[in-house]
Amino acid sequence: MKQMNGADTMTNYLEPTPWDQRNFRVPTYQLTEYSVEALQETQDTEGHFTVKVDPFTDKENLKKFGFYYVDTLMEPVCKKEQLLVPKESEIRFAREYDKKEILDIAEEAFAGGRFHRDFNIPDYMADKRYRNWVNDLIQKNLILALYFDGSLAGFFAYENDHILLLAMHKKFRGKGLAKDFAGSCVQEQFKITGYDTLRTSISPSNPASLNVFISLGFRLKGSIDVYHKLNGSLQAGGE
Predict the structure, then answer these.
(1) Residues 65, 87 within the same domain
(2) In the chain, pLDDT over 90 holds for what percent of residues?
(3) What is the pTM of this model?
């Protein structure tokens, strides 16, 4: 079995994902297409692989080559004029915040992500993956902190026309604030990016979030199934 690293150039069908490799300590890749040739290339390469396929695609070869299902991602889309503007609230956005507090929220808020659902990835590695992703977004200045009633209530991450993450501090959950929070964030992103249409990705395993975005005027445009594969084993070690 070949051993490759994230610094290698892209092979015919395997694109290195160094942002994942740093968390899982094995080479990681995403397939550039779904084909027998691409799947075959994973047979002789050590590492963790991700492939995204149309839900109606024949999945027989995925099983044959050792891939397993981890998640489905729905794509809610909203045009600016379709947004159901939330009522006035006390939510305030800020680009100045305590970085550690934001990272602490990130580590416990995304426990239902696809890497947590991957039985080959320990939870602490999945936690680290999301924490590092949020840290990257902080470095790119793509995080807005949400303050409510004078307290840090969560954060919002975006890039261009994509809503990447919306996380609420656990003490603010279950209080009927989710729609106001999400609506305020979407409205703010329309304002600061200038895009006429925004989109996001949500797993159907998170119906509460999906329902919130639909209630704001988002419509489901499509979906994609996500499969993983591990060739070799993850390196056990400290967290």
Answers:
(1) no
(2) 70
(3) 0.86
